[in-house]
Amino acid sequence: MLAGIDLGGTQVRVALARSDGRLFASVKTRTPLLATAQAMVEWAAAEIDRHRGRDKVRSITIAAPGPIDVKRGVLVNPPNLPWQNVPLAAMMARATGAKVQLANDADMAGLGEFHHGAGQGTKNMVYITWSTGVGGGLIIDGKLHRGAHATAGEVGHMIIDPNGPLDNCGQRGCLEAFVSGTALARQTGRPAAELFAEAARGNRSAQMAVEQAARYMGIALISLTNVLDPEMFVIGGGVSRSWGLIQPTMLATLRSSPFIKPARRPRLRRARLGDRAGQVGAVEWARINQ
Ligand SMILES: [Zn+2]
C-alpha cells in the first residue's frame, strides 16, 4: 500500500492507495490545528493506520513547500509554516515503518496533473501553479525532471525584466514579482481575490491589471517553450480559477512569437485536479519510488 501527504500552510491531506496507485481513502485537517511538526506526523500516521486495514504501507511521499532538502528529507524554512529544519522524512519513517520521501509540492502537483489530470497522454508538459506565489513542475520525456539539486521548475524566478521590482528571493524582475497574488495586491492596493472578482464584473482598471499579469505569464510561456519544447502547459493554483480572464491574453502572447511556429506551439490547459493535485502526485511518487 502507498500513501501521499500534502503539507500546505492551510491544510494537510493524507491519501492512501493500493500498490497500483488507485486512491481509496483521503482525509484532511487544518494545519494550524497541529501545533508542531511532531503533532502533524502523529496525526498523519494515525490516519494511515486507521485506513490501512491489515495491509502494510510500504512507501510514503510527503509533498511540502520549499525550500526542502530532498536528499536528507528535511523541511528547511518554508515561508508559510512555522517549522524550521525539521527532519520530516525520518520522523514519518519512525512513526510508520515505511520508506518515506520528501518532495517539492509544485513538483508533486505537476506529477498529479500529468498522470491523472489535464496532462494525461502527454510526454512533455510544464505545470505552473499560479497563486500567492508562482511555482512549477517539469515533465520531460514522461518523467518528472528535478535537476541536479532537485530545485528545477522554479518558473516563478525566471527573470522577465532585470530592471523590474525586487523579488523576495533577492533577484530583481522575477515573474513572481510581477504576477503573483502578493505582487498584484501590492501593485493595485487590494487583495488579489478582490481584483479578479472586480475584473470579472467588468471593472476596466482591474481588467487591465489582470491582462498585464497574463501577458507577463505569456512571456514566460514563450521562454519555457523555447527552452523545453513542451506539448502542453497546465496552469493550476488559485488564479487559474479565473481562466476566462487570463487564458485569452496568455494564448495571444504565446501566439505573438514569430519564432514559435504553430506546429510546435504548446497547448494551454487549466489544471483539472484542483487542490487534490499534490496528494495525487505524492501517491504517484510513492509508487514510482516504492
Ligand atoms: Zn525570484
Briefly summarize what is shown:
The model has no long low-confidence stretch (mean pLDDT 96).
Descriptive account of the structure:
- The strands form three sheets. Strands 3-2-1-4-7 form a five-stranded mixed beta sheet.
- The chain contains nine helices and twelve strands.
- With 290 residues, it is of the alpha/beta class.
- It is globular, with a radius of gyration of 19 Å.
- Helices cover 37% and strands 21% of the residues.
- The longest helix has 25 residues, at 204-228.
- It folds into two domains: 2-104 and 276-288, Nucleotidyltransferase, domain 5 (2-Layer Sandwich); 118-272, 2-Layer Sandwich (Nucleotidyltransferase, domain 5).
- Bound molecules: zinc ion.
List keywords for this structure.
Nucleotidyltransferase, domain 5, 2 domains, globular, binds zinc ion, 12 strands, 9 helices, 290 residues
Number of domains: 2
Q: Please, how many helices?
A: 9
Order of helices and strands: EEEHEEEHEHEEEHHHHEHEH
Strand order of the largest sheet: 3-2-1-4-7
How can the largest sheet be summarized?
5 strands, mixed
Shape-level CATH architecture of the largest domain: 2-Layer Sandwich
Hey, roughly how much beta strand do the residues contain? Answer: 15-25%
- Give the ligands present: zinc ion
- The count of β-strands is 12
User: What is the structural class?
Assistant: alpha/beta
Ends distance: 9 Å
> In one word, what is the shape?
globular
* Rg result: 19 Å
Q: At the fourth CATH level, what is the homologous superfamily of the largest domain?
A: ATPase, nucleotide binding domain
Low-confidence stretches: none
CATH topology of the largest domain: Nucleotidyltransferase, domain 5
Question: What do the pLDDT scores average to?
Answer: 96
Q: CATH first level of the largest domain: which class?
A: Alpha Beta
Tell me the helix content. Answer: 25-40%
